[in-house]
Every structure is written in structure tokens, then in C-alpha cells.
Design goal:
Length: 267
């Protein structure tokens, strides 16, 4: 009996230590250091221009604009948690070919941007990017976020609903809390998480168009989270990518699928 109680006590101590560690180190878990990638080449490319973005005097990402023609709108791109703005150049090139200016938003502590990697800092930078873009350019503003970036995009809309013409959420969660609860079933994640990052709630007052892309084989954020988000918002176009996983969705996006999404967002 004594041995049993000792084992139970040890298990309880391990559980409490693990729960405390999840709370204390959640920023490091949610925002791991991204692998270093080469900087985007500045200046004129074949059909677009690339410049660093300094909206408030400090580096905040890149601006990629069609060369020699007026953009029809501006897309703000929010990347995932193990990436940096440099990883999103291919996505920017697609949107530029359709005539849009693209801002690759960077979070503090990633890429060339200084600062601590925290969810609070990333969210503040995401919201500032929308405010700064609205002040700098007159064309319609659209948001696109991938994975964690989809959560940042949705939270940036809260209170700025009228500033956003449309939003594309790729492999999104319905809420970070629901994903965490699914993966950490033994822990009270509703008490551990500092912010549930509820995308459904963040979009509840948004009347613009929303496109959601889900991946059939997504094991990181299972597709039912994207499906629930799409089901609970009245202005959603849902696109399921058969055979695609969380990190290879881009390869499944054909020209026709991009056209379908952009037509929906422009409605």
C-alpha cells in the first residue's frame, strides 16, 4: 500500500510539473524557431517588385507588387508557426500574377524582425499590419493566413471588420483550445492556454467573404476543425483538397482553384 501511494504521489507530481511546463513554455511550443532561409532578392524581378516593409520605421515584412501596373487590391499574408515571411514568396507570386499587391507580414523573432517570439507579440504585429496597410494603401485589403497564421488573420479582423474585404484561411483551427484539447486530453487546456484563439468567435461579426481551405490528410490540425469553422460562419466558401496534408496544400492549388477562391472573395 505504501509503495502504491508513493507511486501515486510521484505520478501526481509529474502531472503537475508537466501542466506547469505547458503553461510556462507555451509560447516556445506554439512558436518554435524557424529554419533559416535565404532572404528574398530585393528590387525588380521579371514581373514584380520586392521591397522591405517599414511601416513604423522598423522592419515588418516585405511588399511585393506587380511591376508597371496598379494593384487591384492588397493581400496581407500571415505565415505559419515554423516559417518566416521568406517562405511565402511562392504564394505572393501567385497573388501578384492575379494583379494584387502582397505584404508578407513578419512576426517578432522571425526572419529579419527583432523581438521575442510570443503569441502576444505575434498578434500585436498582425493587428498592426492591418492598421498600417489600411493607412498606406487605398485599395481593398484582403487577408490570407496559413495554420497559426490563419488564427492571426482572424484575430486581426476583430474590431476591424469594415477594413477587410475578404479573408482566406488555409488549414485553420476553429479554436486553438479545441486543437490543444484534442492532443492533450489529460490536461485542462482551458486553464493552461492564455488565449483560446477562437477563430469562430473572432469572425462572428464579420460580414465579408471568407474562404476556407482544408486538407483531407491533415494530421496537425485535422480537417474537421476547418469544416466546423466553415459550417458556423454564414459567408464561407469551403474548399477541400483531397490527398493533401498540412504542409503540402500549396502543391494541390491549381490555377482553377485559385480563381475560384479569388472570385468568391471579390463578391
Amino acid at each position: 500500500m505504501t509503495l502504491f501511494l508513493s507511486g501515486l504521489r510521484l505520478a501526481l507530481i509529474v502531472y503537475v510539473v508537466a501542466a506547469v511546463a505547458l503553461y510556462v513554455f507555451q509560447d516556445q511550443l506554439l512558436l518554435p524557431r524557424a529554419p533559416n532561409v535565404a532572404d528574398i532578392r530585393m528590387g525588380r524581378h521579371t514581373d514584380y517588385d520586392v521591397q522591405p516593409w517599414y511601416p513604423r520605421g522598423g522592419y515588418a515584412g516585405y511588399v511585393i507588387a506587380p511591376a508597371g501596373r496598379q494593384p487591384i487590391g492588397t493581400f496581407l499574408v500571415y505565415h505559419g508557426n515554423a516559417e518566416s515571411a521568406e517562405n511565402k514568396q511562392s504564394l505572393a507570386e501567385v497573388l501578384v500574377r492575379f494583379g494584387y499587391r502582397v505584404v508578407l507580414v513578419e512576426y517578432p523573432g522571425y526572419g529579419r524582425r527583432q523581438g521575442r517570439r510570443t503569441m502576444k507579440a505575434a498578434l500585436a504585429a498582425s493587428r498592426s499590419a492591418l492598421s498600417d496597410a489600411k493607412a498606406q494603401w487605398a485599395e481593398s485589403i484582403f487577408l490570407v493566413g496559413e495554420s497559426l497564421g490563419a488564427g492571426m488573420a482572424a484575430q486581426s479582423i476583430r474590431g476591424e471588420e469594415s477594413a477587410v474585404a475578404g479573408v482566406l484561411l488555409v488549414t485553420p483551427w476553429d479554436s486553438l483550445e479545441s486543437v490543444a484539447a484534442e492532443k492533450l486530453r489529460l490536461f485542462p487546456v482551458q486553464w493552461i492556454l492564455r488565449d483560446p484563439f477562437d477563430t469562430v468567435d473572432a469572425l462572428k461579426h464579420y460580414a465579408g467573404q471568407v474562404a476556407v481551405v482544408g486538407c483531407e490528410l491533415d494530421t496537425l490540425i485535422p480537417v474537421w476543425h476547418a469544416e466546423r469553422l466553415a459550417r458556423l460562419h454564414p459567408h464561407v466558401h469551403f474548399l477541400l483538397l483531397p490527398g493533401a496534408g498540412h504542409n503540402d496544400w500549396y502543391g494541390s492549388m491549381t490555377v482553377e482553384r485559385w480563381q475560384q477562391i479569388l472570385v468568391w472573395l471579390q463578391r
